[in-house]
Amino acid sequence: MCGIFGYVTSKDEVLGPILIEAARRLTYRGYDSVGAATISGSRIDLRKDVGKVDEVAAKYNFAEMRGSRGIAQLRWATFGEPSQVNAQPHLDSDGDLVGAHNGNVVNNAELREQFIAEGLTVRSQNDGETCVHAVERYLNRGYEFIDAIRLAYGDLEGDYAFVIGRIDDDKLYAFKKGSGMVVGIGEGFTCVSSDLPSILPLTRQVIRPQDGEIVTLWADRVEIRSVKDGKVINRQPETVTESMDAVQKGGYAHFMLKEIHEQAQAARELLHVLNGNREVDGLVAKMKKARQLYFIGCGTSYHAASAGAVYFAQLAGRAVIPILAPQFIAQYAPAVNHDDVGLFVSQSGETKDVLNALEAAEARGMACFGLANVVGSTLTKATSFCLPLCCGYEISVPATKTFTNQVITFLYLAYKMAGKDVRALDGIPDLIEKTLEMTAPQVEALATEINDWNDLYCLGYGVTYPIALEGALKLKEVTYAHCEGMLSTEFKHGPLSAVSKGFPILFVAAPNDVPLIISGINEVKVRGARTIVIAEEDARLRANADEVILLPKSDPQIVSLLGVLPLQLLSYHMAVLRGYDPDFPRNLSKTLTVD
Ligand code: M6R
């Protein structure tokens, strides 16, 4: 969802390669346009267009761009179609300022009208340009740069991070509201970015600015001031120790495949952290006392929340309402109060739909907790306590390892709610490894066999229902095929009419639900469907399904969770067979910071 990068050095030099590399490291966020600007003395060199980083950089020869300051931006279209004029960075009316943002300025339309009425030159529909004019308008009125930014900050509504520079200066300025932003301090340079991957190859000394702070970047230092009173805020840099391997493919063809194979290790780390986290028991105590429990998320995170709700019911006899975040606002927020507890689930911790739901819940006094992967994200800061998912970076747009760790976290919490011994879960990482080993060759072959189908179904029941939903989401996300996830018992209530000869239907079966799944299998099989069931060894399934993808033996809750792994692999292989890049599916963005 858009990404910005700014770089300041002490002398004029070739900055193009640094900007291109930084842009490449932001691509996982999703984008449709690319731009770069350098400032050299009183000249701004701005190049941008719709397309991939390497295409646009080559077409406009970004590599030759020189200056003492540079800005790169990847844009994922919200305000204004993907086009060269809407691509970022943007200039002010006279071409003295250049800036770029990520996120969403929600009063973009109103501000554009004001700027036009004030005689400013507005060239695009894009809200990044609005940020530039918001500063320009106050400079035109005679304010100093920092004061112009302070006033602009008050005018710009929404969630965004913004970087801006001007000619005949030696600095860049950055500020944020809602969105993430990281500042890096290196030897002879400073930089600022939407997030860490574009900074880590350059420096490990970082500062994380907060909302309401303005950062001024010189080549050899940064200064943070409060928007409120303009006073300097002292903040020492922290040293980031995370490995850069996490943001590289590590020998795999795609991040998605790498991340699928990282799941065992991620699960190990998660269980280790959960076992050592004293706050877990406090959270469980609060959930036990809650009048009503809500698990809230979007997309994959919602599926994990739904699996969690089944675990809570099955293991702890505790009813939970799993709900998509925007629907929570409409359906439950008006009725919640301080006796209720909400667990907000998100890989990124920046999903706007989730943050909106959090705001609605907090306004009603509900006790709000989080479950997020990106440490330091808005969700981790906005909730009273947020459990980490411990997955490291998940670069590929389709969520895989974060889903698995979300589900494991819910299973862990359900065990705690039930007073069961969580050591029973210690075997999960090995079972994940075993499942991938056992299923990979068969799933790759299956991908080839069913790849011509553009309609598929994934069916499950109980915990395997959200697992089927998640499998279907993965399949449609990366193969662009129509794939529906459904409660197996619902299939006869309509979709059955879609079945034709060879029509592939995937079932995920937990041991307890085998008889019910067998009914489902036979209903579609007699009508010509090709039935593939993912389950642990069971003679009854072998006797009824066309094919069994075998999972290792475990308890019913864990087996259900393992069922997602072959579906992730199937999605990956089908996407590759179709010639699609599973890491960056068309039209999608990893982090959805818009409504
Ligand atoms: O970062 P979040 O978990 O809040 O993101 C929510 C969804 O956008 C996300 O899970 C999406 O559905 C995945 N990319 C699917 O793989």
What does this structure look like?
With 595 residues, the chain is an alpha/beta fold. The protein folds into 3 domains: 3-248, Glutamine Phosphoribosylpyrophosphate, subunit 1, domain 1 (4-Layer Sandwich), CATH 3.60.20; 263-426, 3-Layer(aba) Sandwich (Rossmann fold); 428-583, 3-Layer(aba) Sandwich (Rossmann fold). Helices cover 37% and strands 24% of the residues. It has 19 helices and 25 strands. An 8-stranded antiparallel sheet has the order 3-2-4-1-10-9-11-15, covered by helices on one side. Strands 5-6-7-8-12-13-14 form a 7-stranded antiparallel sheet. The chain has a 5-stranded parallel sheet with strand order 17-16-18-19-20, sandwiched between helices. Helix 11 (352-363) links the parallel strand 18 (341-346) and strand 19 (367-372). Helix 14 runs parallel beside helix 19. The radius of gyration is 25 Å and the shape is globular. The mean pLDDT is 94. The structure holds 5-amino-5-deoxy-1-O-phosphono-D-mannitol. Residues 298-301, 346-348, 351, 354, 397-399, 473, 477, 591-592 line the site of 5-amino-5-deoxy-1-O-phosphono-D-mannitol. 5-amino-5-deoxy-1-O-phosphono-D-mannitol is lined by residues 298-301, 346-348, 351, 354, 397-399, 473, 477, 591-592.
How do the strands and helices of this protein lay out in sequence?
Layout: E1 3-14, H1 16-26, E2 33-40, E3 43-50, H2 53-59, E4 66-75, E5 90-91, E6 97-105, H3 108-117, H4 127-140, H5 145-155, E7 158-166, E8 172-177, E9 182-185, E10 189-193, E11 205-207, E12 213-217, E13 222-226, E14 232-233, E15 238-239, H6 255-261, H7 263-276, H8 279-289, E16 293-297, H9 299-316, E17 321-324, H10 325-331, E18 341-346, H11 352-363, E19 367-372, H12 378-382, E20 385-388, H13 401-418, H14 428-450, E21 455-460, H15 464-479, E22 482-487, E23 504-508, H16 514-525, E24 530-536, H17 539-544, E25 547-551, H18 556-562, H19 564-577
Parallel strand pairs: 16-17, 16-18, 18-19, 19-20, 21-22, 21-23, 23-24, 24-25
Antiparallel strand pairs: 1-4, 1-10, 2-3, 2-4, 5-6, 6-7, 7-8, 8-12, 9-10, 9-11, 11-15, 12-13, 13-14
Helix pairs in contact: 3-4, 4-5, 7-13, 7-14, 9-13, 9-15, 10-11, 14-19, 15-19
This protein binds 5-amino-5-deoxy-1-O-phosphono-D-mannitol.
